[in-house]
Specification:
Elements (H helix, E strand, L loop, with lengths): L2 H13 L13 E6 L2 E7 L8 H7 L11 E6 L11 H7 L4 E6 L9 H8 L3 E4 L3 H7 L1 H8 L33 H13 L9
Parallel strand pairs: 3-4, 4-5
Antiparallel strand pairs: 1-2, 1-3
């Protein structure tokens, strides 16, 4: 595994700590590396809280290392004021010379502006490291902004002969078609999404 891919993989791993709490913001992960050692990590806080880059920078014990370090992040740093200040401004403020980005942010308020701001300040930007994996990780965010709808998972269970439940039953007890392992997986999926829609047809 190449060195950039190693650290972006770690970014994706820690980003998942924000699952279910960051929406409508993306669940971003960031690590800061100095001499091939991770000196800081962060993921996006619950909605309205600090972004991944802010938390990663805050976690660095010796801030004097930042001007010689590389910041890795799954998604392009923001460049606009929302509930928090722009992450790109903080990166520039601390003089971080190199930023490695998994994928560009398609949000209309960012969409390359964060990258342009970093480059204008003299920061080296490497874009598209593990891009497919980062796009997959941010699929909920991209679906919401690019397709103007939620990311949808369809779960369907039926018997081999095409039924989802018996026509009649004497006891009012659940009739399980799936096994305990698949039910556990479905509960995990439900916990990862913002809403559940149930139906009989």
């Amino acid at each position: 595994m190449k060195i950039h891919e190693k650290y972006i993989t770690r970014c994706i791993e820690i980003a998942k700590n924000g699952l279910g709490t960051t929406a409508p913001n993306p669940m971003v992960g960031s690590v800061i590396v100095y001499k091939e050692q991770i000196i800081g990590e962060g993921f996006t806080s619950a909605y309205g809280g600090p972004h991944a880059e802010v938390n990663a920078i805050a976690s660095v014990a010796d801030k004097t290392l930042l001007h010689k370090a590389t910041l890795y992040v799954t998604l392009e740093p923001c460049s606009h004021f929302g509930k928090t200040p722009p992450c790109s401004d903080l990166i520039i403020k601390h003089g971080i010379p190199h930023v490695v980005i998994g994928t560009m942010d398609s949000h209309s308020k960012v969409s390359g502006k964060g990258i342009d701001k970093l480059k204008a300040a003299g920061c080296k930007v490497t874009l598209g490291v593990m891009e497919a994996a980062c796009k997959e990780h941010h699929k909920r965010f991209f679906t919401f902004h690019n397709k103007k709808r939620p990311y949808i998972i369809l779960k369907w269970a039926e018997t081999q002969d095409g039924f989802i439940a018996p026509k009649t039953r004497k006891e009012q007890k659940p009739v399980w078609i799936t096994n305990p392992y698949s039910r556990q997986l479905v509960h995990k999926w439900r916990a990862e999404e913002q809403a559940i829609l149930g139906g009989t047809k």
